[in-house]
Amino acid sequence: MDFYKHLNDNAEYLFSDAVDHVMVVAISIGIALVLGCALGVLAHRSPRVRPMILAVTSTMLTIPSLALFAIFIPLLGLGTPPAVTALVLYALLPIVRNTVVGLGTVDQNVLRAARGMGMGPWRRFARIELPLAWPVVLTGVRVSTQVVVGIAAIAALVNGPGLGNEIFRGLRSLGSPFALNFVLGGTLAIVVVALLFDTVFILLRRLTTARGIR
Amino acid sequence: MVATTSPVPQKIDLEVKSNARWLVMPIFLTVVGIALWAWVSAQELDSIEQRTLNAGELTARVIEHLQLAAVSTLIVIALAVPLGILATRRAARFVAPVVLMLGNLGQAIPSLGLITLVVLAAGVGFKSVIFGLVAYSALPILRNTMIGLQQVDQTLVKSARGMGMSPMQTLLRIELPLAVPVVLAGIRTALILNIGTATLATFFGVQALGYVIFQGIQLDRTPVLIVGAVLASGLALLVDYLAGVVEHVLTPRGL
Amino acid sequence: MTATDQIAGPGASQAAATTAEPMIRLEELTKSYRGQKKPAVDRVTMDMPRGEIIVLVGPSGCGKTTTMELINRLIEPTSGRIHLDGEDVTTADPDTLRRRIGYVIQQIGLFPHFTVGENIATVPKLLGWDKARIGNRVDELLDLVGLDPAVFAKRYPKELSGGQRQRIGVARALAADPPVMLMDEPFGAIDPITRERLQNEFLRLQQQVKKTIVFVTHDIDEAIKLGDRIAILGEQSRIAQYDTPANILSNPASTYVEDFIGSGASLKRLNLSLVGDVALDTGAATARIDGTAAEARDTLESSGRSALLLLDGQGRPQRWVDARDLDRADGDLRRAGEPVSALVDTGATLSYALNEMLTSNAGVALVVDGSGAFQGLLDFETVMVTTRSIQRDSSDFYRAAKAVTD
Predict the structure, then answer these.
(1) What is the spatial distance between Cα C306 and Cα C293, in angstroms, rounded to a whole number?
(2) What ipTM was assigned to the predicted interfaces of this complex?
(3) What are the DSSP calls for C111-124, one per residue?
(4) Are the CB atoms for C70 and C236 separated by under 8 Å?
(5) Taking 60 as the threshold, does the pLDDT of residue A201 lie above it?
(6) What's the gap between Cα C2 and its chain centre?
(7) For residue C115, is it within any domain?
(8) If interface means Cβ-Cβ distance under 8 Å, which residues of chain C face chain B?
(9) Per-residue pLDDT for B81 more than 80?
(10) What CATH class is the domain B53-250?
(11) CATH of the domain at C232
(12) pLDDT band at residue C14, thresholds of 50, 70 and 90?
């Protein structure tokens, strides 16, 4: 009952932190999607740079999150900017990789047919390649989002926004009777945010996938 | 978080195939190391910075960090691999989907939240942090062990049994060797998770490299922050690289 | 001792005792699965003689694979007994039992992380053979299946073609020289041309090793080609007919069997008889191609036939000539008449010979022995007489009618 009371008392803070969390994740994923797709297309078009792009983006996932957040502080100061920068870097690999895989699995005969019908390169990409690769790309975005929702909690340690602040509040009061409530509240809220994002992706997938390949 | 995405069709090369790829990371890390050392040497360090940034202190932090990662990963391997094997045995087959589903749900729990909860329950200190790391990194190994064993071609198992191998012989000689690449990938993922999450140990009474980073942030000392962050990243990349080498060596030929 | 001697050793003596105890005896063998009303295999009783290929054939889902897997107890029978070489193995240790039974499945199931040599060595290793013996055995078996040990022993399965994998699968099953082999559609996943070749190789191999082989297939033609005995199975693995291919083709026991064999039963019989087994027309007029046209014309006239076959020094057929060709020959017979076609070996099946006749348009096949020397002529009529089933049929009347008008 204690925890329930805590949730009631802190609903306002919890909610605003949750909104911040969602915003930070959404902005990071949005940037990562544009950047990741661009890198993915580049990697798809040029088999030479492909392993390099993938190696660098996968290296990003290896770097400890606290370190990556911290490293941008001298450049960008504390708060949201280093948090978003780090989260974008974490989100890149799944998106880039799935873009490459998605584009790679597009049937070459379909593209040949499109060219035969007189579609130009840009039109071929926008009308044929991207729509066919889209479900795979979207799966990558979904994986990225899952990763980023969890890591965003650590942004609080560099004064970033989001639900990590709830956990951090509990962490600073370790030993006090409220600690558990804050940590539990923040953690569960993050799980809820993660599940919400997942639901959104399931819907997005249905809505944005061409009917013929659903 | 290394092995997260959907299966990759074979026709697309996502990795460098030439042997030169094994040289890239050591060279990169050496260059970064030298650059860091040169940069710090060129700084005039005040007394606060000197207290953290000296060879003895930093070595101690790196060792603490490695201890956390190594001990937790070993415990996770010892727990999750046998569990994964058990969960895929015929008698326990119904367990597997349940474990995988719970595991996927558990993935949504943030590392910071999970480890803080564990420490709240078990108190601060090395053991609690290890406990937290184990709880967080068990999933990739458990899952990869199960998937690795499940994806072994069942006709091979049938062949082995038909030739008179006992269930144990089949497991040891056929199933496990064929699952090795997937299991190793899981172990590598867990190891990297542990190195990354170990930076948070500083909030729970074990300094490690997170201490250096957080000192840099709190005391607003850029050199300390940079050294901590670069050391933690370099360590993670080095360990990942070494794990990759081990993975390559241990993967059975012929696969 | 050569490779084949060693392998044939025990098998050959067993083959001599075919009339004695069967190698495999199944008694009332039944397998029921929980939750299924009817048993999957219902009271199968059969004797499988030593050194023979016994083919279990039936439509998919009839339980033929289950029946086979009951023999090496990959599936445990619900009731009934299994005897192997006179010994009741129904409750023997299954792992030990399986090491005595070679096993090949359709997917072959070569272990991808083992080399070819290690794959073949699997059962000998389980049996605790020493290294030298295993090494020798691997080389021996690779030779036996026609793959060079120096080239293949160290390769991995992924470096082999489908046909090579299949051969390695058979070699692996033969490794510990088991008296019995179980083969579950081993040629099922192979392209038709390679399959034909592997089947022939398999028969040749069996001539050497003389194993008792239980062979599962859904292909009646494969069954007829390979089987010494065929068990045609119906639902729940009930035996519709268990007999030699010839008897099954000429006397199908039921309409079920008839339907299963399909319409071409007589044509299928052509696969059972070899050209060397039928009476050939040996009265053809022949002459040496390096002889004179005059000699040839004499032979032709005295033979009463209208064409003459020119043979070379080794007796191999070269050209067909008739009287007009000989008149025009100007002494050199090498360019007279037409080159021969439709040459068939005495070891070929009648089906093959018939095919040759039809494709060459000759209406007659020239039968030669292993060295290519002319043996005689085979015509449509002879083939037809052979295809005729044991019952009197219209062809008897046709022949009778023909004899009268002659």
Answers:
(1) 15
(2) 0.88
(3) -TTS-HHHHHTHHH
(4) no
(5) yes
(6) 24
(7) no
(8) 69, 72, 74, 94-100, 103, 105, 107-115, 122-123, 126, 156-158, 172, 182
(9) yes
(10) mainly alpha
(11) 3.40.50.300
(12) very low
